[in-house]
Amino acid sequence: MKHYIKILLLTAILFLYYLIASVNTSHATVPTSPPFTRIWSDPQDNIRPLRPAMRIRLHPHRDLDNYLGRFELLCQFLDLMQEHDPEDPSFGGLHEGEGERLWRIIETDNTQEAIRVWSEYADYFDDHETYLGNIEAAWTYTDSFPAWDEGPPLYYALHNCGWGLVAEMGYRTAYDDDSRREYGLACAEYLVENTPRIDPDMEDRLMPLVAGWAAGTLWDYGVFEDNEGYLETALDIASDVHRWIDADLDRLHDNEIWALCGGTAMWGVLRSLAQVDSSVATWSIEALEEMDVFGGRGDWNNSWNIWYAHAWIEAWRLIDDDAYLENAVAIVDSLLDQDGDGDGGIPATGGDPDDQDQSWVSAYTGWMGLRQLFNVLPPIDAAMVRLVNPSLERPWPVRAPLELIFELVNGGLNEQVDIPFRLRGAMQLDTTVSVEGWQPFEIRLPEEWTPVQVGEFAFTAYTDHQDDADRTDDTLRFTISILPVGQLELITLNIENEPVGCDLYFYHCDIDSNELFVHLVTDPEDGRVEAELMVGTYRVDVIPDFPYPRSVIEPFEVTEETPNLIDLRFEHPPVLLVDRDIRRDHASYYEDALNATDRSFYRWTSDKLGGIEGRTDGFPTVIYFTGDRKSETVPSEDREEMARHLGRGGGLFVTGQDIADDIADDPFLTEVLHCRHLSDSMRQQVVEGVEGDDVLDGMTLLLFGNRGANNQRSKAGIEAVGSGVTCAFYRGAADTAAAVRWEEPSGGRGIFFAFGFEGISGQGGTTAREEVMAAVLDWLGTPQK
């Protein structure tokens, strides 16, 4: 439960999350005329400024998305937060939020909140199918974990029962289905019987807030059910809460606790008591001077803020002061601004990362905020959102065609709008785009723009609908930087001057060394290619055709005046490194050891490239490792290829902890690797070279420790057969070999480790991997570079 995990959340940090809208000097949404108010219901009139005494902190920049579209996205996020496994005991419940810790928490309040939001979607968009399955599953969860059983403490059950009423009313209204009525009545009865009296001087800071929520929801349910008893109880509770607020109006801004705040209590009073008592409505005008717009710092402060928005909206409905509505809009916008990953989810605390959005605060924002503001949206509110392409974070080369793509959004009530679009500056365009729905819409220009000169080129893009309610977000001004290019010639040959096909990937170090800038390919027929490349400093990843190893050129300068030449000569490497592992990170243990012994290599990854049939010719040595693979360690075609390689006089190094187990009955083990399987898993972590051995004499190999792969849990025990020679034993098991070597009549040599070479750690004064690799390769006769 949230009240149990609150103490586990991060302590409050200084984070002005209201300043999320970033400033970009080259890309900004600017008004075409002095800004109008953001209260769309009357966009041409000036709304009077907020009273100086009102506790407003800051109005952030308006989020450029739209309320209807963001509501749709939020509904999708709640779907992601629901438990969909019908075998799970919590099937249908809403997970608390993203991240392993929050995901483990599933509760009734989260689930009821989602029911209300999905019901609002069904009712408003007249779409009763999309989330019906979600709602039905959620009701299944509440049957198992009803609201009144949540807790102790008492406040949590009361809080949940209020949400039970909200959910049942929303569902019955949207689907004209009273099958959940008994659940709603049970929640109402719980509030009637258990909501405590609220004393103006009580020390408990949380219960008055919960009571305010109980009063407001019970009042709504009393109206919904036409139940005088519920209405009377709601007014009785609200009267207590009213006296509690009036005893100290600072409670409207200084009582932010758990997931609630003074706005929760105020909403309950306005929603119930103020509806029937004009003196309370009058009192609220002065009291609201003390209510926060934005809450203070602290865990779950986004929850406090949406409760404030809920109260401001209710105050606006009651008193008809547009300043109250403006406060609510500012709060909702600040929450939407925190959806940094655009998944529709909202974090509980300002400053939380994008991967810690929470379902309950998102549902709060959907029902208390977005849905309450639909009725003040204008029919048409087109907005330019951004330039999608090209990126303005980098310059572009002269004479290179650029596709201009813009994103705009329809934020008004009309579902389909024809919006005039204009582009001025270095390129001119006038067109009309038809936008359906409320999701961002891309405008792709019918023609590309090709800059023929170097310099800075300014553009202005804007929408121009005569009925647009807000012109402050219609215009986008930006500048594209164009740089000169240099002529580039690439030549890729082998040492015999034969052409080699090659892929060259250019990364511009002055822009983003991790983002591919240009990909060029030399012709395998002549090993050449010419191109124009923007001036600057590059890193070039060179990937030639098999069997030549990849390399990196850094830095490589491209200038405008002088010829720019890359002339490469490739030499066949001595080692074919066959990666049969199921994990890519183990290959680095082999690559580092090979580099340390000054041997170049070609890494062959089996999962991408397949078997090695016909690939070993020309390599003096083949290293074949299987890492963590337990089955199909050495496919039959690879066994045949390794046998042929040995028959041609080549060197072979095979290593893997599960190889002997996997192919124990295959002739390849006895006839090619010259050993027999004895044991599936040796417990000993130390391997000792046989005294006087040509390869491992004097070596002690530790197969444990974080300097190695630390993965050796299934080391096989073997014994040499035929022409095999034992070159290492497991410590304390002199009758069980760990490594066998042999020589072929053809002159070929081989060595087999019944464990993984990657597990050698070299810790505690034992032999290092590099030393072992050097000894193996020297014995195999592997040439250096």
Q: What is the alpha-carbon Rg in Å? A: 36 Å
Fraction of residues in H or I helices: 25-40%
Please list the strands of the largest sheet in the order they lie side by side. 22-21-23-24-31-30-29-26-27
Are there runs of 5+ residues with pLDDT below 50, and where?
1-64
The assembly state of the depicted protein chains is: single chain
Shape annotation: flat
Distance between the termini: 64 Å
Largest sheet: 9 strands, mixed
Content-based structural category: alpha+beta
Number of helices: 22
Number of strands: 31
Q: Hey, roughly how much beta strand do the residues contain?
A: 15-25%
What is the typical, i.e. mean, pLDDT? Answer: 90
Question: Notable features of this structure?
Answer:
785 residues, alpha+beta, single chain
Q: Describe it for me?
A:
With 785 residues, this protein is α+β, with helices and mostly antiparallel strands. The protein is 32% helix and 24% strand. It has 22 helices and 31 strands. Strands 22-21-23-24-31-30-29-26-27 form a 9-stranded mixed sheet, with helices on both faces. Strands 1, 7, 9, 10, 12 and 13 form a 6-stranded mixed sheet that branches. Strands 16-15-18-19 form a 4-stranded antiparallel sheet, with no helix packed on it. Helix 4 packs parallel to helix 16 (359-373) and helix 14 (301-319) runs antiparallel to helix 15. The longest helix has 22 residues, at 154-175. The protein is flat, with a radius of gyration of 36 Å.
